[in-house]
Amino acid sequence: MKKDRKISAPVIRRLPRYYRFLGELLDNNITRISSRELSDKMGLTASQIRQDLNCFGGFGQQGYGYSVKGLYGEIGHILGIRNSYKAVLIGAGNLGKAVAVHMAFEKRGFRLIGIFDNDSAKMGQTIQNCTVFHSDELEEFCRENKPDVAIFCVPKTAARELLDRCYHLGIRNYWNFSHYDLSVVYSDIIVENVHLNDSLMILCYKISEAHAQSEE
Amino acid sequence: MKKDRKISAPVIRRLPRYYRFLGELLDNNITRISSRELSDKMGLTASQIRQDLNCFGGFGQQGYGYSVKGLYGEIGHILGIRNSYKAVLIGAGNLGKAVAVHMAFEKRGFRLIGIFDNDSAKMGQTIQNCTVFHSDELEEFCRENKPDVAIFCVPKTAARELLDRCYHLGIRNYWNFSHYDLSVVYSDIIVENVHLNDSLMILCYKISEAHAQSEE
User: Fold this and answer.
1) How many Å apart are CA B32 and CA B198, to the nearest integer?
2) pLDDT tens, A10-64?
3) Which residues contact B197 (CB under 8 A, 6 or more apart)?
4) In the predicted model, what is the mean pLDDT of residues B133-139?
5) pLDDT tens digits, residue range B165-208?
6) What is the value of ipTM here, to two decimals?
């Protein structure tokens, strides 16, 4: 299907959730779903869901609901998971290891091709079939393998220098756990930031709100 | 300040980001900021920011901008970070360790009081001043210490049973890394889910989109 329409950022942000829910339905051999059932599962209104799904075309049929498989395939297609972008992960501490081990890279459009760390003790280890190299080897590795993406699992203090190195090696896409604001340094890069503290604060808000309401 | 107004969910979702940016401004001794400057930093429109900040009252002054400290304090207050909710973390693998080490719990309204794991080899270890206990001790520990929150750093397959145990121990708030949909099981719990795969798919989308545009 051609990408002949512009989908808004909030809709895009919801696509991975749709994709997850639809994947679970497929696992349970459910072939069709109505917007009402999907809205129950996702905590959105049925009209919101119809509006979202209308953005990318005709998978709903009045009275029959949506084809789970069709919708799942189309959303995966829009998200670009047929790609196999080459990624290097930098920083093999607990966080880096957790990311390397738990992420379903190949199902999400990526391929992890190398892991780098400053700690010589970690050299030669294998994490998820991926060798850990010393950070000094980053330049040579990147020139040879031309990764598309760098995953930053390093402290904030290390991020700026690392970004300069990666940028000069031609890497323009970043999955960033470092809390350093990479896009301030270079405007022509693509950055997806992960801020777990934000999620923690939202939890704090939800708990406080619930307490406040129960005290009213 | 009394919580006499209802703030919408999308605004709430943006508050931790405001809080982060304002914290950085404070670190740099910046005392006032205009909505335009804040919008440049945050990638939102100035009018969106004025609208957001109007939700919680008078920190802006025409021509003078916002008091960084005032706004920072008020947003922290709304998010409830003055609290000190007691949290237990379950699952001390790479992910659990990373969460225990990297999260600024005390600055976000929480206190980590215990870590639990099935692996006897980890018993008695200390992570961020917190002792690792065997999961068998969860019941006794919770009866004594009455945690408010459980942090699930366990595989999806382990989540359901663990949830039943925690629920019966009186825990109603969950920070959930397990990908298991906890709120389907109990409707009277508060859950904040972390889905790193969603973030990865958004990155994939951004890269694919950029490629598609450069090929047009």
Assistant:
1) 35
2) 888 889 999 999 999 999 999 999 888 888 878 788 888 888 888 766 556 666 7
3) A16, A20, A103, A104, A108
4) 97
5) 999 999 999 999 999 989 889 999 999 999 999 999 999 999 99
6) 0.91
Name which of A72-76, B8-12, B26-30, B86-90 the model is least confident about: B8-12
Kindly report, residue by residue over B44-54, the tens digit of the pLDDT. Answer: 888 888 888 88
Domains of chain B: 9-79 (1.10.10.10), 85-197 (3.40.50.720)
* A16:B195 CB<8 A: yes
DSSP string, A137-156: GHHHHHHHH--SEEEE-S-H
Residue of B102, B175, B200, B208 to mutate, testing the A interface (most A Cβ within 10 Å of its Cβ)? B200
Query: Which chain B residues contact residue A13 at CB under 8 A?
Result: 202
Q: Phi first, then psi: give them for residue A194, nearest 5 degrees.
A: -115, 120
For residue A108, give the nearest of B3, B200, B210 by CB distance: B200
Residue A22 CA to residue A167 CA, distance in Å, equals: 37
Pairwise CB contact (< 8 Å): B205 & A20: no
Please name which of A153, A165, A161 lies closest in space to residue A193, comparing C-alpha atoms. Answer: A153
**CA-CA distance, B178 to B161, in Å (whole number)?**
12
State how far residue B20 is from chain A, nearest Cα, in angstroms: 9
Query: Residues with Cβ < 8 Å from B118, sequence gap 6 or more?
Result: B134, B135
Joined together, the tokens standing for residue A5 give 């329409």
d(CA B184, CA B174): 13
